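Entry for zinc ion complex. Fields follow.
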Amino acid sequence: MKLTEITAVFLDFIPNELEEGKLYISEKYKTATHLCACGCKCKTITPLKEGEWTMTNNNGSITLSPSIGNFSGENPYHAHYFIRDNKILWH
Ligand SMILES: [Zn+2]
């Protein structure tokens, strides 16, 4: 099932076991990880570095840019969405 929103979880270390609907953000290691919002549970890693993704935190409302495309796993390019103010906007 496609998700329509995501909850930001801030921590230093990204856990091995991820829950759907959560965006794990490590500001310490400048990376964010979540399970693909289409419900396939592919791990999607978005490094928060120059030339990769930019995270905006507006009082806990997270926006990531550019958009998320899931380019790995068994079905590459199957999912394409934006995370804007904790909402998942399907492309
Ligand atoms: Zn997926």
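NOTE: The chain has a mean pLDDT of 92.
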